[in-house]
Amino acid sequence: MSGIPLKPVTAFSAASSAFLVGFRPELLPFSRPSYIGTFLQFWTLSFSLWAFYKIVLYPKYFSPIRHFPTPPGGSWWNGHFAQIKALPTGGPMIEWIETVPNDGIIRYMGMLNSERLFVTTPKGLGEVLTTRNYDFIKPSHVATGLGRLLGIGVLLAEGDEHKRQRKNLMPAFAYRHVKNLVPVFWDKSREVVNAMTEHINAGGMSNSELPAAHKRPDVEKGDAVTEVGEWASRATLDIIGLAGMGQDFGAIKDPDTELNRTYRVVFKPSRQAAILGLLNIFLPGWFVRNLPVRRNGEIEAAAAVIRTTCRKLIRSKKDKLEKGELTDVDILSVAIESGGFTEENLIDQLMTFLAAGHETTATAMTWAIYMLCLNPEVQSKLRAEIREKLPSVNGSEDVTTQDIDHMPYLNAVCNEVLRYYPPVPLTLRDAAQDTTILGQVVPKGTRVMMVPWAINRSSALWGPDGAKFNPDRWLPSEKNPHSSNGGAQSNYSYLTFLHGPRSCIGQAFAKAEFMCLLAAWVGRFEFALNDERELDEKNVVIKGGVTAKPAKGLYVKTKVVEGW
Fold first, then answer.
1. Cβ atoms of 149 and 302 closer than 8 Å
2. Closest Cα to residue 375, out of 511, 475, 471?
3. C or N: which end of the chain has fewer Cβ atoms within 10 Å?
4. Is the pLDDT of residue 207 over 60?
5. pLDDT tens readout for residues 517-526
6. Is the pTM here over 0.85, yes or no?
7. What is the 3-state secondary structure (H, E, C) of 124-191?
8. Which residues pair with 550 in a beta bridge?
């Protein structure tokens, strides 16, 4: 069900009430009808009839997309919403893509029977993401909700504005530029590993700091507990600060810097955040933003801190440019030198890079450590390659792009983590005009879903082991001619960074950063789950939202492995 048509319902009710009260009062069931009372009753009746048509009658009997295959189950008025809420974001689609026979499109019902089209084949995804890309736009509630913290940068801009922003940013994210940033990634990876080593040698997290399920009365010497997400987030915030903007935010050294505290509040899941997200779908953004609830206050305060930080960075860089002293190689410097952005445009871009850039990679790191805990043989094999090919984090020797590129197993593990647990599990589009997908008519306003969590594991696209974690699928062999695609025959089978004009502009940056961090961590430490119940993936509660990660954090026993 799309936005509530308040204007038509109100106009009809007002006109009907005025006519009946003024000219035909005998038709009303009151001896002395008032305009206000009649209007309220007409409004309630009109809204109820509209809701019944929209929720019950339209999807079943009149919708032009009602012929698409639909998963079984669901209620007569609220569709599959109960299933959707009960599982992590994208969870039901993992099941539906395997069990619902389809020719590339599955229709399912969201809250109040709102129709959704889930695209399941590479050809259909190619149309939505590439050949008909600008026929599909991000829903307005996504831009309204995320824009408060991310700004309307390249991630949320649409149409010609998006084309302009992306064109002006491409030089900053070109491979030739990103490869120059790898030594920065490695320096920060060494810094976080050495900080973690000090933390571990001091005993790690105390029992008083651990959640009840993770308290350990028998902690062995050298067998400390750490929370992966916290350390990963601090590291990636510092990396995006230094490599992206030329500013070290100092989050690794101090977890309580203003910016780190701000993002910790922003990304913490809460019931209020979930409720506001739902309200954004049905009510005007200005109304939801102004509701007097704590979460709105937190978002406004966070946005003010982030904007102020970005503005200071931009003005500092511009001062250097005017003095002829700007020699930095970070992304902000390249963007300023391009001359393609106003100060406000640049603030929006930096807000996007800060939030999206550090949270997604931190999420990938969390899942990487989790999967290595589940697969200790992979962890050991990876550590052996790292120690053979990379310098110790104790030294000061640089690591280059060539070093990383010549590590096939590190590349394989990182690619498989990003396939198996893509940080962003689901992305939405609305048809901006009447269009088609796979030759089927898709009316304007139809919500279209692309679900990396489901596509990246589909047995039809990845073979019978698609739902299994297997880094070897990325290693070349005679039996695996498609190893560069992980064994899949189409690159659209791998949706982690999307494809086409709206693909992730920072994917080369993110992958190089991810590989440096994971290499440093695994080279130095051995990881094992603190709570062995989490060896069963079904026991890990996953937080929904823009990114998907363990809702209560990932606590692991972390041991320094000597000799590197």
1. yes
2. 471
3. C
4. yes
5. 999 999 999 9
6. yes
7. HHHHHHHHCHHHEECCHHHHHHHHHHHCCCCCCCCHHHHHHHHHHHHHHHCHHHHHHHHHHHHHHHHH
8. 542
